[in-house]
Structure to design on (154 residues):
């Protein structure tokens, strides 16, 4: 059984680089477990996020090997759960980048720019399709500023 989930282009690129196509729904990894949790939620009336779907121009095919998933109350993705899934994967991707940049800061030897482009290249993320060098750089600068404020207040 195949479930089609609308995703942002950079989210699909990131997932396709790390997982086979179609994306296997499993509870053994972090992203699959989160998606499984979203599918198990009860249906809701959902007009809240329908306007966001112009950014969700790609489709991620999710392979559901066990048809009992739907028997246990799992439903198709609603607009809200679709937005939550995309935000979750986007945040996971940024956490992976931050780990690499923090490691770079400790060891040195490479510029941030080179490290960010290397991360994008290794994860199949194309410049200009939702995630850009500038977006990643701004995210890391904001995170560093936030960390510095937390250290000053402690």
């Amino acid at each position: 059984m195949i479930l089609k989930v609308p995703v942002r282009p950079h989210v699909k690129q990131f997932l396709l680089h790390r997982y086979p196509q179609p994306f296997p729904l499993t509870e053994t990894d972090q992203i699959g477990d989160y998606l499984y949790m979203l599918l198990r939620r009860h249906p809701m009336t959902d007009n809240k996020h329908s306007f966001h779907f112009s950014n969700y121009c790609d489709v991620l095919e999710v392979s559901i090997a066990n048809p009992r998933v739907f028997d246990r109350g799992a439903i198709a993705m609603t607009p809200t759960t679709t937005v939550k899934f995309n935000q979750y994967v986007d945040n996971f991707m940024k956490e992976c980048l931050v780990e690499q940049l923090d490691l770079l800061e400790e060891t040195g030897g490479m510029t941030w720019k080179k490290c960010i482009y290397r991360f994008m290249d290794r994860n199949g993320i194309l410049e200009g399709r939702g995630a850009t060098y500038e977006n990643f750089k701004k995210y890391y600068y904001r995170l560093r500023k936030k960390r510095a404020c937390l250290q000053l207040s402690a």
Summary: The mean pLDDT is 81. Residues 52 and 83 are 8 Å apart (CA to CA). The first strand starts at residue 2 and ends at 7. Helices lie at 9-18, 30-39, 68-71, 79-107, 112-122, 133-153.
